[in-house]
């Protein structure tokens, strides 16, 4: 039984080098700055990677496999809820493509093989725009965004 | 400025409609999109071109088809820059009012 699959494509232009952006995705201590998570892996094809919350709890929120590595141009990983890591058919796929574009890099994140209407599909459509604008902001201005910001925040944004 | 392009692209009802259509169903062809609009194909192409320029729509070639995907990243940037900070001030006021009315002191 195959469920309907959906694809999302996110594009952002970042004033940085492909190397810097690739590092920002794959180096835990950098990802923690703008993503609130570390992406932990040895980044070899076939290895596991884990998306680990950067706090004391260090909860693994996403897990998957490294499918393709061509630093700093392309990274393909599979993506699943850690409880479904052992079920390959439940994995969706994320492709990062980095292409130099004048003095910028065009970063395209394609998230496909997602089950239409699933919690994961809904979650990632909220998550990616926030993460990518935070990444852009962090690399260009050294000011990441609060990716966990809730609309009900009561502190005024100083 | 990126923001100028975003706002300009959003300043047209047809283009907003196109974004709505892609929000409902992502990854549509020009033909599919035209089916929802009472407009010449050529005009729709022009509007899509402007949305693409503003990076609000990205095009992926799949075989012989060109699929249009909604790219909400620039909208997120606009939200961060132009909406969130005003929202937070307003919410802070509401929070103060609530604290006052309920006589809470723990904040």
TrEMBL record, chain A:
It holds the Pfam family AHSA1. CDD domains: SRPBCC_CalC_Aha1-like_GntR-HTH (cd08893). Residues 16-140 form the Activator of Hsp90 ATPase homologue 1/2-like C-terminal domain. Belongs to the AHA1 family. This is Polyketide cyclase.
Automatic annotation (TrEMBL), chain B:
Residues 1-90 form the HTH arsR-type domain. Pfam families: HTH_20. It comes from the Bacteria. InterPro entries: ArsR-like_HTH (IPR011991), HTH_ArsR_DNA-bd_dom (IPR001845), WH-like_DNA-bd_sf (IPR036388), WH_DNA-bd_sf (IPR036390). Transmembrane segments: none annotated. PROSITE patterns: HTH_ARSR_2. GO terms for molecular function: DNA-binding transcription factor activity. This is Metalloregulator ArsR/SmtB family transcription factor. It comes from Sneathiella chungangensis.
